[in-house]
Specification:
globular, TIM Barrel, eight-stranded parallel barrel
């Protein structure tokens, strides 16, 4: 088996959980059909067929969240899980417990409501991995308070509703602080470790030192590194700065000189890093699974990577904050 094929398909341990996942996972945020985020809608039949194709394909990790379309993504996944008579053996499903999107409620009761609704929509009695989601929308004091949301998730883990606990969020220092509690077995970072933005580098090293698995999402920077700067001028869900656009154009030109698509380099940048357990790629069409595997399997000359590193070191205008 070549190094490239092994990097694409050989399952990796999820930290200390005992689970193993393929180096690429399917993200389902687009399946929530949220045009205010992605600028397109996903019809129900297409979303469900995408999930069917996933379960027939070579990947085994599917990532979702209660907030993706306010349950829409989970419901579509649940349709297929029920068709299959349950989650097939060997597959790993991860969801996220969310605040109430209408009221902002972060209470312990809301965490339980979120998880129990997810289980109903997914058609499961237990979720293998559950992440506390977007903790930057609350405070450390509220999340970690006695009798608060984090304690409630730990209680649900003790009850067996949750197999393994983790965090999925944005700010790097905040995630590291939660990791240091010793409760998190999985971290999902998004849009902070890709060709253009390397701010999560220290988070990856921190997690590796503690045996915590890292799932890396947002490797396409919400589209600019997949469609190219001419086809998609947004980075991290907002209009890209001229500095980011210039860097993306330079990277696209470097990839063209080496005869590879920018999207292949963006995906393989994450796959090459041994600190990343699985790279989560959002998918909204059945054919995206095959296309993603093809990008991951595309040979890339080693000489390209130093060129991309040089461009990345000079990127200006990245979104402020972590």
């Amino acid at each position: 088996m070549s190094d490239l094929v092994a990097r694409t398909f050989t399952k990796r341990p999820v930290g200390k959980t005992g689970l193993t996942v393929t180096p690429i996972g399917m993200g389902t945020a687009p399946l929530g059909s949220m045009p205010w985020v992605y600028s397109f809608e996903v019809p129900d039949d297409r979303g469900i067929e995408t999930v069917r194709r996933f379960f027939r394909g070579p990947l085994n990790l599917i990532d979702t969240a209660a907030m993706y379309g306010d349950g829409t993504a989970e419901r579509r996944i649940g349709v297929v899980i029920r068709e299959l008579g349950g989650l097939p053996e060997g597959f790993v499903l991860e969801t996220k417990a969310d605040r109430d999107l209408r009221t902002g409620d972060w209470s312990a009761a809301q965490m339980r409501r979120s998880v129990e609704r997810s289980l109903r929509l997914l058609g499961l009695e237990r979720v293998q991995i559950c992440l506390i989601h977007d903790t930057e929308t609350s405070t450390w004091e509220e999340i970690t308070a006695k009798g608060g949301p984090l304690e409630e998730l730990v209680k649900m883990k003790d009850e067996g509703l949750i197999g393994h606990l983790g965090i999925g969020a944005g700010p790097i220092d905040m995630i590291m602080r939660y990791v240091d509690l010793g409760l998190m077995e999985v971290v999902l970072t998004h849009n902070r470790y890709n060709l253009l933005d390397r701010r999560a580098d220290r988070l990856l090293s921190h997690c590796a030192a503690k045996g915590v698995a890292v799932f890396n999402a947002g490797v396409y920077g919400s589209g600019i590194l997949a469609k190219g700067p001419a086809g998609h001028g947004r980075f991290r869900y907002r209009e890209a700065s001229e500095g980011v656009m210039a860097a993306a154009r330079a990277m696209e030109m470097a990839c063209a000189r080496h005869g590879v698509p920018l999207a292949a380099a963006a995906l393989q940048f994450s796959l090459r890093d041994p600190r990343v357990t699985s790279t989560v790629v959002g998918m909204s069409r059945p054919e995206r699974i095959r296309e993603t595997v093809a990008l991951a399997s595309m040979p890339i000359a080693e000489t390209l990577w130093p060129e991309l590193e040089s461009i990345a070191a000079k990127v200006e205008g990245l979104p402020e904050g972590e």
